[in-house]
Amino acid sequence: MCLNYISIKQELMKVLRSAFSSAGRMSLAFMAVFVLLTLSASGLEAQSKTDQEYEHKKKALYQQFSDNQKWHNANIPPVRIRAMKLKKQIDSLNHLRDSLMSYSDSLIAVSQNRSGQIDNDLNLLREEYCLKSEAALGDVYRVKRGYTEDSLKKILANISPKLRKSKAAQRLKEYLTVEPLKAGDKIWEFTCYTLDGKKFNWKSVRGKRLFIILDGYDCMGGHMNPLAFKNFYKNEIEHKVKGLSDFAFIPYFSEDNYEKFKKAADFYGMTEYNPVSDMEGQLSKTDIIYNVTATPMCLYVKADGTIKAITEGFDPKDLEEFINTAP
Hints:
By secondary structure, the protein is an alpha+beta fold. Helices cover 59% and strands 7% of the residues. The chain has helices spanning 2-20, 26-85, 91-129, 134-142, 149-158, 161-164, 167-177, 226-241, 258-267, 286-289, 316-325; strands spanning 209-214, 247-252, 297-301, 307-312. It is globular, with a radius of gyration of 27 Å.
């Protein structure tokens, strides 16, 4: 359908140019404009419906995953807790304990099989729609490290002409061609925004040593208890950098709108530390430049703007060393 739409549009453009070359054929030109607008609207509507269809099916699978997780939490922990409370004292208790543990293991296997099947269904759904849906192609970019380079090139070669102009396709091309920054390179001052909607001014931190966390806060304990994460930050980061005038901490969030950005910053107790976001969500170029994974990527930048280290995950000892030794 996309190929037909493109070819018809090209032919109509020829008619339009020809029509405007002759004053006597202006009515034909207006008709061509009308048809072009109609086709454009139809193309957008078709794309929207494809994306909606994909998102609807994906949401249903995510709901299955959520339901399975609830079943897991409701059934497995109580059994294991009961088993662990049975001390190995007499044979009858030992037998009961072993039976409960065995039953718990069987429940875990059921849960894992369900999760595996749902994950497989999500992969198949993404494969089915990625050549025709921008939403699905965006999900390919989100999990791009699970694809081989040849697989991604094949996808890009076979997507519709319309999708080739999409941001998702652009990011996949960049992922295949752009070399991520490494220690010794100059920092990339990407465009980002603060919680008040203003563009972050990198000049305000030039000449300072920088510690930047690139998302992944769930892997730092924040998903369990927001208060616990805030205490973790105070214990492991804040007291180490407090009072250092030549130091700046920049927490980055990969959100695509201010509402999500503010909610995430508040959830993790980071609103008072001037967090930033590029507002590109899962299609962020920052993900490519700094090779960001699901775990927090930490950037340690010297005062001259040179990257001292990029680490996958946060280790308080790395921050201490950076504070004590980096110029």
